[in-house]
Amino acid sequence: MGELxxxxxxxxxxxxxxxxxxxxxxxxxxxxxx
Length: 34
What we know:
Elements: H1 2-23
């Protein structure tokens, strides 16, 4: 059960990161975020 929760949280984090990148954060526009 705990492993499933961790996988779900990790998946949501990946989706969130992809969503932010697609929103036009200065990640692909020249200056990097991290």
